[in-house]
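ok so heres the complex, two chains, lmk if somethin looks off
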Amino acid sequence: MSTKPLLQVQDVRVDFAQGKGQVFQALKGVSLDIHPGETVGLVGESGSGKTTMGRVILGLTEATSGQILFDGEDITHASRARRRTLGRDIQVVFQDPYGSLNPARTVGDTLAEPLLSDKSLSPQDRAQRIAEVLQRVGMPVDTAQRYPGQFSGGQRQRIAIARAVIAKPRLIVCDEPVSALDLSVQAQVLNLLKELQQSMGLAMLFISHDLTVVRHVSHRTVVLYRGDIVEQGGAGQVHDHPQHPYTRALLAAAPVPDPLIQRERRARFDLARQALAAVA
Amino acid sequence: MSAVVSVSSQGQPVGFVRRLLSRPLAVLALVWLILLVVLAIGAPVLVSLDPLDQDLLAIKQLPSAAHWLGTDALGRDVFSRTVYGITVTLTGVLEAVLISAFLSIGLGVSAGYFGGRWDRWVQQYVSLVQSLPTMLILLAVLSLFGQDMLPAMVTLGIMGSAGVSRVLRSVTLAVREELYIAAARISGLSDVHIIVRHVLPRIAGPVIVQLSLFSAIAVIVQTGISFLGLGVAPPAPTWGSSIYEAAASLNDFPWLLVPSGGVVALTVLAFGLLGDSLRDASTESWSRPAVRQKVQARQAVKPTDIPAGSLLSMRDVCIAAGERTLVHGVSFDLKQGETLGIVGESGSGKTLTSLSLMGLLSPGVNVTSGTAVIAGEVIDLSDEKRLAQLRGATVGMIFQEPMAALDPCFTIGHQLAEVIRLQNLPETQVQAKVIELLEQVKIPNARDVAARYPHQISGGMAQRVGIARALASEPKILLADEPTTALDVTVQAEILALLRSLGQSRQMAVVLVTHDWGVVADICDRAMVLRHGKVLESATVVDLFHRPQHPYTRALLAANPHSAKPGDVLPTVDEQLMKMTGDAT
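and the predicted structre for the whole thing:
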């Protein structure tokens, strides 16, 4: 990873006005880098600012201060016109596979969207690309003519992933992409993301509340707590040797699918919680 | 990839037009409106009599072969006058509706979509227009432009667009927040593109409904104007002037009011009905049928195989939606103080099984057979009356969305007191019991929390309140449907610890419905794996996790990234199942 980072987030703060002059600090000066072909896991609980982080990178939320550099270019306050072309490089997969596809439009219409800004493509080219990407994510060819309502949650998430990769982006922000899915489907979607990342050399920001999933997919893990990074490092290191009390509490709180081990962990969680209370 | 197969079985959804045409009232309304248009266009060919021809020898005649709708006070043919009047009315309506549609979609959608200052300006403009008296302005316009209908109908369109645009703005506001709009924006679509491709198709329903209702109003206003003799000069035939003439001879020839008033009433009705049907047809695909099927309560048959010490036994529970069986004969036993996990993925029937004990299945879903034995009492699960008595008394329930399960209008204390009063406690003890319950679920500063509203507490706190409410009636059985799925893991761990200690201290039988194996391992004594409505296996948790019997259980456990080597390809369930069945043969 000696190459130049693809995405650099530098000291980003996001404040939300709460009325009566009060301000909620969603992000309190966060910095992180993502290199080409790297997956960075962003872990935290509700209110940690992890979703805000993703939205800032995508340009859906304005940073109060700080900088976001994409391939060396400052995109913190990119114009609408620039954002439009950035859509080919930075894409997104949302958590809710039901809300992220317009039920009133065919899958083909939705998949064509990231390609519309590329004027060199003819409608035939677009149809070709759609057929290719659908095959890539393991969906039948006739999917393009059908409506999202005819697909299950896991299939919709495949379609959402197809939309994210169709324009061959360089960075994908995955905001809890498997949290709404069943375990069996979750495994399929995680495999698909992994496969696409390796074959396309994608960089990914993988946002999740689940340390186990993040450990599985990411190279590096960043732990957010109340708008601050409390710990970051190699995925294995953060998962197996957590340093910060919050990370420890988070790990200890997640129940493991083994009743005997889980009994020991319960005791450990109580200790971790006390330690965290002492810090906070 | 079983998921791929499941789609094809659902079939094609019925198209909007066909849904609309399946409604008799919509068809009637459409037939009437089309008939009017055909008559208006074909009047010179279809109607032989001139609407202005007077026959003073045949005045005020009832319908006959020569005059289908009779004649008026000047001996003119009523049918001919009515048909020739259609054009004026429908053109007027069309003008008003077009103007109104153009303005309301433009203003409403742009205000809702862009928000900010533009939205405020539009809102102020709309309020201003709505505060003006429409009729007075119409009369002023008519007096300015004399005998011309067009300016009046344009004015009506402008006035009417204000209300419609307000509705469209709020619909757009909701659509704007949808994730696919954000996804489209990230994909680089311009605002115009997003509005045309995403917003307009989504709000087509409300647009059509609003405009059809406005059309009905426009019919009345248009006839009202010609009733006053404004707009179109008599003797030219209009519906309004026909009503005026009918009113003049109301005493000696009331028949005249029937055709003239009838067409107006029918046309207004047609637009109204069409609006209703359009709305129903456009929401039918995602709204549920409101009819609840009446199910005959069956005689309960006492099962013979109830183990000693069982507090709750369910036997052969079958649940079906119409022809489709969703749960196939689920049975289980549960002792006092024991926690049973019902595990499965979406569509496995785990929630239905637990809801059947509450008698809370949604309309259209019914228990086709099944018996519950609670502390020796045999209850047939189709006996909704008996189940309603058990609800909240013997059987308590906690829900997945703790916030949604609390009424935002009342304080926490009020909502708990409501449940406690059902036990006929004296009022002085009710408040004490509220505090006691909140303390039992380990809420600090119980008194303070009781005075708060649901939005003032966190999700974890709300779930504690939900548990407190379920405990209020001291139930013997507690059903928990994914009680921690919506919570953060650290909060989940605390709620699970609370459920564990309450189950033991109160010796309740707890049924925990979940998809999360970690939760099962954490608090359940035994667990039951469901798939497609069938019990695959049921065992103590240690056996289930360490010696899973069914290939599906094994496959599910393997699909969990927990047991996989980081970065490796995760085994997926169907590959696993195929491999295992292959081994077996």
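quick notes: Chain A has a mean pLDDT of 89. thats all i got rn
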